Write a sequence for this structure.
């Protein structure tokens, strides 16, 4: 209790910048999505483009001075196309090369080698033609299959929206008990045995919210809310209010009318009385 | 097969936004491991890392993984693969080859601990499928059964056909066949006999003491005297002929004919 108070007191007078999930539609996003977002964007991915030094300290070879080891990752960039590919953790590195002792540094982009190949998911029972890197294939091989690779690898290493949405589809399929193999119970049970262990890390809601980009998630929740609330036209509300008032005044006609806005016979009875093919009224 | 996975996702659920644009083009395309030439400044324990300066973006290439040799991986074959092995066999092949030609087409599975356990029992079940004495046996069998062997015998001196004649004829075509692997038909062929010139017979070759294959042969006569020689026939295997003895007809008909050019 006391620590909480101290915290709140300490926070006084300090302007806290609003984050993605503090304002607007982002604030409405469920905890399940925030968990995924943390795994995707706020976790340090595995070092692909540099070899991290091990240990806490190292000694300078010449002077014997002790220096702490601090691994600062290389800044990486991801072109928007990478969301349609599977790069397996690789990225574009922008930097400089010094090609000669007496030359000025030269800007350089290190871009992964991309090639089109085929991946096969056992759970979805589908072959996909996708653009991959050699590293992706190597990771698939070392994980004994594409499904294992997707399910084992955290979102920060999969990175691309294609991989993440495939992972969500696979997780959903497994969570539903592989309805695709309804007619082959042997394969169904084998798949659930093989991949069922990966479901332990997620709840159904987390699976439902897995692998969406921030904008996609915002759009989704907005759509959900719009569908959730039913809009009742104001005329029904006013009509019900009026009948209420008339009833209070104990008018006979009002007693027979229903109060509910939805049952307000207006649309049904009024339309039924209409006869478009009847005699034309003289005006 | 789906042309593109993005197409599937777009049509199926419209979850991935359309992210098409100009391709990211660069002159050099390599997979690389880099190292900073100038180390970054140290930051305080538990503090924020210091701002990177321009010199911290100067990188040296440590290793380029695309130019390295691909490591071999172990796979278990689920079917007979020509030149690689029988079903249930564990082989070590280049990882890229294994992925493209064995794993994706479903001819093999990864040699994971579960699969090794699983296929231990299945080897016996798979044994009733056709197996071969070695990985190359099937290929040899196919090649031998499709060839027409030219057996050239003497026109002047009498002879009876022996396995070593066939061995020599094979050697002339570039096949090394041991003598004990060759068996001749029961009815012996003798000569010189100009009636059997250009006519067919067969020999039986045994591969690795297991697989037996009938090889189509054609008899030719040859003389050391240039005047006595029979004129040269170009592409003799394309000319229709008949067996030396009518007893050979049944066997010769089972051997697939040699096809050098496809008919229109």
């Amino acid at each position: 209790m006391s620590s909480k108070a101290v915290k709140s007191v300490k926070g006084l007078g300090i302007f806290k910048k609003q984050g993605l999930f503090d304002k607007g539609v982002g604030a409405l996003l469920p905890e399940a999505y925030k968990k995924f977002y943390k795994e995707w964007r706020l976790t340090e991915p595995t070092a692909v483009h540099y070899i991290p030094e091990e240990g806490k300290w190292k000694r300078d070879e010449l002077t014997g001075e002790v220096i702490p080891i601090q691994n600062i990752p290389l800044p990486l960039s991801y072109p928007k196309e990478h969301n349609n590919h599977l790069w397996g953790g690789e990225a574009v590195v922008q930097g400089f090369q010094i090609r000669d002792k007496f030359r000025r540094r030269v800007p350089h982009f290190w871009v992964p080698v991309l090639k089109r190949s085929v991946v096969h998911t056992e759970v979805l029972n589908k072959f996909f033609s996708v653009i991959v890197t050699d590293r992706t294939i190597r990771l698939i091989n070392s994980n004994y299959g594409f499904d294992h690779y997707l399910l084992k690898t955290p979102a920060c290493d999969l990175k691309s929206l294609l991989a993440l949405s495939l992972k969500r589809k696979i997780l959903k399929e497994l969570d539903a008990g592989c309805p695709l193999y309804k007619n082959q119970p042997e394969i169904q049970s084998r798949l659930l045995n093989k991949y069922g262990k990966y479901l332990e890390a997620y709840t159904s809601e987390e699976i439902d919210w897995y692998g969406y980009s921030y904008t996609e998630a915002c759009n989704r929740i907005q759509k959900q809310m719009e569908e959730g609330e039913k809009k009742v036209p104001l005329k029904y509300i006013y009509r019900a209010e009026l009948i209420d008032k008339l009833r209070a005044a104990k008018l006979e006609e009002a007693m027979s009318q229903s109060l509910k806005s939805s049952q307000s016979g207006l649309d049904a009875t009024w339309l039924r009385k209409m006869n478009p093919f009847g005699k034309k009224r003289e005006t | 097969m789906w042309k593109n996975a993005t197409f599937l996702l777009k049509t199926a659920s419209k979850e991935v936004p359309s992210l098409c644009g100009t391709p990211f083009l660069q002159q050099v395309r390599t997979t690389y491991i880099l190292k900073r030439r100038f180390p970054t400044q140290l930051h305080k324990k538990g503090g924020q890392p210091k701002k990177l300066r321009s010199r911290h973006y100067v990188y040296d290439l440590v290793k380029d993984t695309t130019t390295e040799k691909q490591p071999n991986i172990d796979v278990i074959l689920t079917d007979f693969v020509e030149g690689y092995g029988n079903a249930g066999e564990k082989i070590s092949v280049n990882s890229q080859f294994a992925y493209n030609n064995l794993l994706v087409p479903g001819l093999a599975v990864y040699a994971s601990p579960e699969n090794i356990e699983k296929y231990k029992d299945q080897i016996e079940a798979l044994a009733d499928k056709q197996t071969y004495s070695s990985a190359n046996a099937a290929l040899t069998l196919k090649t031998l059964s499709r060839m027409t062997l030219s057996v050239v015998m003497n026109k002047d001196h009498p002879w009876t056909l022996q396995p070593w004649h066939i061995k020599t004829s094979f050697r002339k075509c570039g096949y090394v066949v041991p003598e004990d692997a060759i068996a001749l038909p029961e009815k012996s062929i003798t000569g010189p006999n100009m009636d059997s010139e250009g006519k067919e017979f067969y020999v039986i070759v045994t591969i690795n003491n297991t697989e037996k294959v009938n090889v189509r042969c054609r008899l030719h006569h040859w003389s050391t005297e240039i005047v006595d020689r029979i004129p040269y026939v170009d592409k003799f295997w394309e000319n229709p002929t008949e067996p030396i003895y009518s007893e050979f007809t049944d066997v010769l008909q089972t051997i697939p004919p040699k096809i050098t050019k496809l008919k229109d």
Notes: The CA atoms of residues 201 and 215 of chain B lie 9 Å apart.
